[in-house]
C-alpha cells in the first residue's frame, strides 16, 4: 500500500520534471528554430537522467 | 506499382502481427476457461503469474502453451541445454527433462546428483534428500543453487543478436574494400553507423579520441537496439529486461571509462584543484562514488526498468481481453485491448530506439568526461 503511494509520488515528481524540461525545450526551439537539433539532444539527455532517478526510486520502492 | 508493393508488404506485416496477437489471446482465453471449470484460481492472479514468468529468463523456449480439453498442458517450442557447475563438477542435460515443471516437483538425476527447477532457477538437492521441502515463505530448505551456465532463452537471444550483427557488419565492412557506397542492407546500416559517429561519439568524446571508442559504442548501440526490438516480437524474448544483462553492459562502460581516464580526470576526481584543501577529500569521495556506483547504476537501472515496464504494460493490455471479458463482452474487450496494445506497441518501438540511443549517448558522455584533457593556464 505505502509503496504504491510512494510510486505515485515518484510519478508526480517525474512528471513535473519532464514537463519542465519539455516545456522549456519547446520555448527554446520556438525562439531559435535553427538550434532545434542541439536542444532536442540536450533535452533527451536531461530527460534520461531524470528517468534514471525516478526508475531508481521505483525499483528501490519495490525491493 | 511501387506503392502497391509497399502496401502489400505493410498489410502482410499487419496480418502477421494480428495473427500473433490472436494466438496469444487464445492462449490466455483457454487458460481462463480451464480455471472456470476448476473454479479455484483467480484469472487476475493467473495473468500476473504469466507476466511475471515472461519477465524472467527461462530454461526452455516456448512459443505458446495451452490446456487441452482433456486438461493436459500443451507446450509449443523446444527445449534448451542446461549446463551446470555442481558440487560434483560439470553436469549437462536437456531442459525437457524437467517437463516444463517450475515448482520443484520434477527431480532430474544426473551423475548421482538430484536437480529441481523452482521459479526458473535450478537447485541442487542436498545429500540424501529425495524431494524438495519448503518453509513457510516458499524457500527451499534442503536444496541450494548451483552455478548455472545454461543456454537459456536470453542467451539464445544474445547469440541471435550477435549472429545478426556479425553477418550484417562483416558484410558491410567487406563492401568498402571494393566500392564507396554499400548496397543492399548495408544502405540501411551506413546512416546509422554515421549517426552514432557524428551525433553521439564525436561531440561527446572529442575529435581527437573518439575513434578508439567507436567499436564499443557501435556494438552497444546495435546490441541494445536489436534486442529491444526482438523483445517486441511474439517470440517473447526479454533480454534487455534481464538485470544481469544490463549490469554487464554498464560494467563494460564503467571499466572502459575508468581505464581510459586521463591524468587530468584522476586529478580532478581525487584531488580537485581550486577548492580549499579541507574540502578535497569530501569531493573525492563524492566523485568516486559517482563514477563507480551512481553512474553505472543509473545506466543499468534505466535500461532494465524501461524494458521491464514496457513488457509489463504491453502484456497487461493484451491480458485485458481476458480480464475484462465478463464486464464488457468478448468483442468490446478484445477491441479495447487491441487498440491500447497497438498504441503502446508503437511507443515501445520508439522506446526501443531511445533506450539504445540514451545508453550509447551517456556512455560516450562518461567516456568523454574521463578522457578530456584540460588546458593549463
Automatic annotation (TrEMBL), chain A:
Signal peptide range in chain numbering: none
Superkingdom as given in the UniProt entry: Bacteria
Compartments it resides in: Membrane
Membrane-spanning segments: 43-61
Functional summary from the UniProt entry: F(1)F(0) ATP synthase produces ATP from ADP in the presence of a proton or sodium gradient. F-type ATPases consist of two structural domains, F(1) containing the extramembraneous catalytic core and F(0) containing the membrane proton channel, linked together by a central stalk and a peripheral stalk. During catalysis, ATP synthesis in the catalytic domain of F(1) is coupled via a rotary mechanism of the central stalk subunits to proton translocation.
BP terms from Gene Ontology: proton motive force-driven ATP synthesis
Membrane topology field: Multi-pass membrane protein
Protein keywords: ATP synthesis, CF(0), Hydrogen ion transport, Ion transport, Lipid-binding, Membrane, Transmembrane, Transmembrane helix, Transport
Species: Cellulophaga lytica (strain ATCC 23178 / DSM 7489 / JCM 8516 / NBRC 14961 / NCIMB 1423 / VKM B-1433 / Cy l20)
GO MF term list: lipid binding; proton transmembrane transporter activity
InterPro entries on file: ATP_synth_csu_bac/chlpt, ATP_synth_F0_csu, ATP_synth_F0_csu_DDCD_BS, ATP_synth_F0_csu_sf, ATPase_proteolipid_c-like_dom, F/V-ATP_Csub_sf
One GO cellular component, as annotated: proton-transporting two-sector ATPase complex, proton-transporting domain
Transport recorded as keyword: yes
Family membership noted in the UniProt record: Belongs to the ATPase C chain family.
Residues forming coiled coils: none
Stated name of the protein: ATP synthase F(0) sector subunit c
UniProt keyword Repeat present: no
Domain V-ATPase proteolipid subunit C-like: 5-60
Amino acid at each position: 500500500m505505502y509503496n504504491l503511494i510512494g510510486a505515485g509520488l515518484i510519478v508526480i515528481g517525474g512528471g513535473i520534471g519532464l514537463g519542465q524540461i519539455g516545456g522549456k525545450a519547446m520555448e527554446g526551439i520556438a525562439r531559435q528554430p535553427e538550434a532545434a537539433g542541439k536542444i532536442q539532444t540536450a533535452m533527451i539527455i536531461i530527460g534520461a537522467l531524470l528517468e534514471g532517478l525516478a526508475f531508481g526510486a521505483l525499483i528501490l520502492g519495490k525491493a | 506499382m511501387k506503392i502497391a508493393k509497399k502496401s502489400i508488404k505493410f498489410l502482410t506485416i499487419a496480418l502477421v502481427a494480428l495473427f500473433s496477437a490472436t494466438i496469444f489471446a487464445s492462449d490466455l482465453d483457454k487458460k481462463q476457461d480451464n480455471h472456470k471449470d476448476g473454479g479455484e484460481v483467480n484469472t487476475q492472479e493467473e495473468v500476473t503469474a504469466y507476466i511475471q514468468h515472461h519477465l524472467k529468463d527461462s530454461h526452455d523456449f516456448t512459443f505458446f502453451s495451452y490446456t487441452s480439453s482433456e486438461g493436459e498442458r500443451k507446450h509449443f517450442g523446444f527445449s534448451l541445454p542446461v549446463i551446470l557447475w555442481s558440487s560434483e563438477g560439470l553436469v549437462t542435460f536437456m531442459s525437457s527433462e524437467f517437463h516444463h515443471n517450475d515448482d520443484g516437483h520434477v527431480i532430474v538425476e544426473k551423475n548421482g546428483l538430484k536437480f529441481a527447477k523452482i521459479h526458473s532457477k535450478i537447485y541442487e538437492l542436498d545429500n540424501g534428500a529425495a524431494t524438495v521441502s519448503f518453509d513457510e515463505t516458499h524457500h527451499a530448505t534442503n536444496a541450494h543453487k548451483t552455478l548455472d551456465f545454461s543456454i537459456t532463452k536470453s542467451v539464445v537471444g544474445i547469440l541471435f543478436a550477435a549472429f545478426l550483427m556479425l553477418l550484417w557488419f562483416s558484410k558491410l565492412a567487406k563492401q568498402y574494400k571494393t566500392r564507396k557506397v554499400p548496397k543492399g542492407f548495408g544502405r540501411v546500416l551506413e546512416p546509422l553507423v554515421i549517426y552514432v559517429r557524428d551525433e553521439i561519439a564525436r561531440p561527446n568524446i572529442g575529435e581527437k579520441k573518439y575513434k578508439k571508442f567507436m567499436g564499443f559504442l557501435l556494438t552497444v548501440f546495435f546490441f541494445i537496439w536489436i534486442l529491444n526490438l526482438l523483445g517486441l516480437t511474439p517470440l517473447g524474448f526479454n533480454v534487455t529486461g534481464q538485470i544481469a544483462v544490463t549490469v554487464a553492459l554498464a560494467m563494460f562502460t564503467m571499466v572502459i571509462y575508468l581505464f581510459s581516464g586521463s591524468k587530468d580526470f584522476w586529478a580532478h576526481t581525487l584531488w580537485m584543484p581550486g577548492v580549499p584543501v579541507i574540502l578535497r577529500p569530501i569531493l573525492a569521495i563524492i566523485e568516486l562514488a559517482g563514477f563507480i556506483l551512481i553512474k553505472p547504476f543509473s545506466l543499468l537501472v534505466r535500461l532494465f526498468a524501461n524494458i521491464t515496464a514496457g513488457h509489463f504494460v504491453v502484456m497487461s493490455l493484451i491480458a485485458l481481453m481476458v480480464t475484462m471479458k465478463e464486464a464488457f463482452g468478448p468483442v468490446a474487450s478484445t477491441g479495447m485491448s487491441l487498440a491500447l496494445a497497438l498504441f503502446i506497441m508503437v511507443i515501445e518501438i520508439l522506446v526501443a530506439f531511445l533506450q539504445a540511443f540514451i545508453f550509447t549517448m551517456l556512455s560516450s558522455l562518461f567516456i568523454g568526461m574521463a578522457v578530456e584533457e584540460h588546458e593549463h593556464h
